[in-house]
Specification:
Layout (H helix, E strand, L loop, with lengths): L6 H10 L7 E2 L2 E2 L1 H9 L3 H7 L3 H7 E4 L2 E4 L1 H10 L17 E2 L2 E2 L16 E2 L20 E2 L13 E8 L2 E4 L10 E4 L2 H7 L1 H4 L3 E6 L18 H18 E11 L4 H12 L4 E8 L5 E3 L2 E3 L1 E8 L9 E2 L7 E2 L4 E6 L1 E2 L16 E3 L9 E2 L1 E2 L8 E3 L11 E2 L3 H7 L4 E5 L5 E7 L3 E2 L4 E2 L6 H12 L12 H11 L5 E4 L6 H8 L3 E6 L8 H9 L18 E6 L3 H10 L3 H13 L28 H11 L15 H4 L4 H12 L3
Parallel strand pairs: 11-32, 11-33, 12-13, 12-31, 14-30, 31-32
Antiparallel strand pairs: 1-2, 3-4, 5-6, 7-8, 9-10, 9-33, 13-17, 14-17, 15-16, 18-29, 19-20, 20-28, 21-26, 22-24, 22-25, 23-27, 27-28
Helix pairs in contact: 2-5, 6-8, 8-9, 12-13, 13-14
Amino acid sequence: MSKIEPRLFDELKKVLVSFGDKYFIGNELNRSKVSDDLRAYDEALLAKLFEIDFIKKNYIKEVAGQKLFQIDQLEEAILYDDYWNTSYTKYENRVGLTSNGKFIEDNQDVVLDFPFKDGVLTASMTKEDNENGYDDAFLNEVIEKDEIDRLFDKKILSNTKRYDIDGEKDTDYFDVEKDNLIIKGNNLLALHTIENKYAGKVKLIYIDPPYNTGKDSFLYNDRFNHSTWLTFIKNRLEIAKELLCDDGVIFVHLDKNEVHYLAILMDEIFGRKNYVETITVVNNPRGRDYGGIANVNEFILVYKKNEETELNLIEDSAKKFKYKDSIGGFDVLELRNRNSAFHKGNRPNLHYAVYIDPNSEDENGFYSISVEKDEKHIIELLPRQSRNGVELVWRWGKTLLAKNANINAVAKKNADGTYSLMQKYRKNQTMARSLWQGTAYNSFERGTNHLKELFDGEKVFSFPKPESTLKTVIEIGSNEGDIVLDFFMGSGTTASTALKMNRRFIGIEQMDYINNVSVPRLQKVIAGEQGGISKDVNWQGGGSFVYAELMQKNMGYLQDIISSKTIGELHEIYNRMLSGVKGSQEPADISFRADLDKIEWDATKVKFADQKRLLIKLLDKNGLYYNYSEIDDRNVREFLSDRDYQFNQSFYEAGE
């Protein structure tokens, strides 16, 4: 059936043309834009619509002396070509997913949505207490946006130390341009604490967050439902993105439980165009039985901050190269993006002309190129079309290509006389693979055995990642001297591998094992331990790092509450929350909503678990740690050493 444009569209076009291109795509009406402004009650649009007799007659009705504008019916007519009442179906011309009677593709606000999405899940990760079947209520507590005032302020750093080849020593200074950094504390608040110093400076982020399986042996509370887990991750990824430099990249390691949800969330945060790959890691060749299907894999989601970023190629010492130039051996691969999902229509900045000098053939058979036409570079080259006629694009933007022209990018003449744009790759490298078997095969066992060797045969951490996996990640996503960040530091694999590979690192961890596993492991790396990748990179030891803690306030009370075993212990903690302990702990910040006079302490009337939850709810989550703005307060200086005071001034104020 041929398309018949309804009279409504003729009338709309007559009046909407006065807005210029705002409501048009070429000569066609931009229906979704009109729909969006209708729903927003755009005053200028409505004023124009009320000038149309056709609309006044058909979409404005009088009820009880009042005129009602039937926006829903008008919007439906605009979106679905509702030409006549006897048509077979309003969907006659279209097939697709709908929500509330509208095609999803017509909604410009489609996102991954879930409860609490606009809140903040601080998710303090202390010890879990499961003996009484108690799930730490605070871990699933969401702070609404309008309640957050001091939460993301930078925090006071305390217990500062420097570790190097000579061991542990006190320190009162920090060099943001040179020092590696380890922070103990809530990772969301720690990320905001370092934002001013590290925004736009981190090249690579690798995290291995809780998998949300409901039965892992992680010491984190790992039983979030989907909504709270997604909120928890979303809050942290948003600030992590701010820390990445323009050509930064993030790797998130997880299993099947949340990988599909997280991919959609990361599309929203980093942009779908910046999705690189989902790497499949074979971590258990024997597999775990899930309903008769063996699960042998985990996954790493990889996203760039900007689509033009080129990741490194994986080292392969056995690679032999066909060509040589003044720099060394190299091979080539085409710079045209062969994926037709990326084309001139959605990547216009990657579709541009390159010019070739036909008289510049070198000893390898390649030709000189330029992004500007001149007296020598006269042959214009555009990305070739795909077989189905899609205008493809280059993999590099114009600025990057100009920088690499005739160094790492050249033209090659084809047998039919046409040319192709080629990238040189060097240093015994080959393309990354999306299935990692050699580097991470049986990874849990490999990582666990390495840690056992470091700690005299004792199993100090469950399911640590092996350094070989992190070596591959770091090779792909960074270069020597770059900063690598892991804010789920765990046993310290990322920091240890980064140190051995001559990268700088930032590690953040809240659990107490940071002081009996993570930091001691890094000390052993500095001393020259030979496990993991040490022999592969000829590691001989050396390096240093600075350790600091977010200075606790309510967090100390929170940890005490979670560790308590009886109503009596809780009552003692409650009394301390009200009065503090002279010389060691000031009173807690308590939620203003609480009526403290109504709290019941008769053990025959209240349950221990309920009382535990109540005390956790009483704590003001804005006051988990001391803010740096409070550092000169008398009550803060009472608990902060002069050394730590000087360290904070060095950390926050140097160079500002």
